[in-house]
Design a protein that fits this description.
Helix content: over 70%
Radius of gyration: 20 Å
Number of domains: 2
Length: 89
């Protein structure tokens, strides 16, 4: 019963401001410590991941009619992420 009362007392705006502070501190630290080349590679990996998610959502919502095209697009995105990350390390 106490856990339910604790959940009711959570201030959402406080939690959002805490998350905002954490993200801001992370981005500031990330930009200070990494070179522009590393940031460019990370941006490319995030872009490939977004493309992967878009293709996955398309496959679930629309269907996998051209199965080979959908699978090749998904695997290409995963392969690009993997090989870029491998060379990155």
């Amino acid at each position: 019963m106490n856990k339910v009362k604790d959940l009711k007392n959570i201030n959402i705006s406080e939690q959002i401001s805490n998350i905002h502070e954490i993200v801001t501190a992370f981005l500031h630290s990330y930009n200070e410590k990494n070179s522009w080349k590393i940031r460019m590679i990370d941006t490319f990996i995030v872009f490939c991941f977004i493309i992967f998610v878009i293709q996955l959502v398309y496959a679930f919502l629309i269907g996998m009619f051209p199965l080979n095209a959908v699978l090749s697009g998904i695997m290409c995105s995963i392969g690009t992420i993997t090989l870029t990350g491998k060379n990155y390390l």
